[in-house]
Amino acid sequence: MSLVRNSSRLLRSQLKRVQSVPVALYHENVVEHYENPRNVGSLDKKDITVGTGLVGAPACGDVMKLQIKVDENGKIIDAKFKTFGCGSAIASSSLATEWVKGKSIDEAGKLKNTDIAKELRLPPVKLHCSMLAEDAIKAALADYKVKQQKKD
Amino acid sequence: MRKTTNFASCITRRSTYMHCRSCTTSAPLTHQAVDCWNCKKKIMHLQKMICSDCGHLQDVNTSINYFDLLSFPIKFELEPLQLTKRFRQLQTLVHPDKFSNKSDREQSNSSDWSSLINKAYKTLATPVDRGQYLLNLKGEQMPQDNSSLNAEFLMNMMERNEEVEEAADNAVLEQLNNQIIIDLEKNANTLSKHFEAKEFENIKKILVEMKYLLSIQQSIKKKQQSLITTIS
Predict the structure, then answer these.
(1) Choosing from A100, A129, A132, A140, which is the catalytic residue?
(2) Is the ipTM of this complex over 0.85?
(3) Which CATH superfamily is domain B7-125 in?
(4) pLDDT (tens digit per residue) in B46-96
(5) At the fourth CATH level, which superfamily is domain B151-231?
(6) J domain spans which residues (chain B) (predicted)?
(7) Distance CA B156, CA B193 (A)
(8) Rounded CA gap, A140 and B155, in Å?
(9) Which of residues 192-221 of B touch A (CB under 8 A)?
């Protein structure tokens, strides 16, 4: 009698444990960017046509560097990134560099983290990664503007 | 009957060196008491684990903090060996193996207490987790946004991450890991005095730095693993 009771209790507790294990599934878009990241690398920080954004997420220890090269017409002609963090952070910054290429600095400033999150189908727990990418773009644009002002 | 006496005397022995942290008296702790679900007698409030009268294991007190549970004063500094000793003492009292012949309620309580004690031990045993836990107890939160990180710090973290990426062999990785261990310890050692002085902004900065260092340490371990698998 107690054997049946014990084994059903054991089964119930095991089921409870299985249900409480979080299952993390990366969307294929994220995996694609993670395995084939675009635009990994660096641009010359000292070049006045280059804006560098360096941001971090204290909650998870991620660090992200995003650089843009702007031509005389205010158009972003090149972008590179380097990210140390989770797959979602890497994918977010990779996607961000893809998107800003060919855009004007005004258009790039309008890029929202929600666009990135939607494209990568990021779950709620990873939304801050797309926010980090948006922050990185803004920081790079701000740095470029400061350098341009110093020039004048 | 003998078992009950052992539990009761164990509680009495421990209660002579525990003192009430929420009031100033050291008299027998009958206030904030709870009734034993089995014999209905009042139990002292501090750990409320075992009824000193009938020896039955009580339901988990979810409001207890980890320091109180393991009988440590609520401050950052603690002696790791002492922590392990207290952890083992507590687990001895509540371990599920000891309750396999007891009532369902006690068996369930035993597993709950055991989990809570494990969680408390793991949190207090790791300096960065202990620091964050103590910070939260003091009503402070870790920063969630980017503004708390300065450019110099981020550049430093970037460089250290790149060093790991570029490391060619295990010897270099070991060296990088050793440096991280040194830096983590240096940071942990300053936390005690910052907590005493209630310098919460400094504490948060240090804890964030420790998290970044631990993140780099994870990368080192991952890379070391991958080097092992490629060799074999």
Answers:
(1) A129
(2) no
(3) DnaJ domain (1.10.287.110)
(4) 456 877 778 888 888 778 899 989 989 999 999 999 999 999 988 988 888
(5) HscB, C-terminal domain (1.20.1280.20)
(6) 65-137
(7) 25
(8) 14
(9) 208, 211-212, 214-216, 219
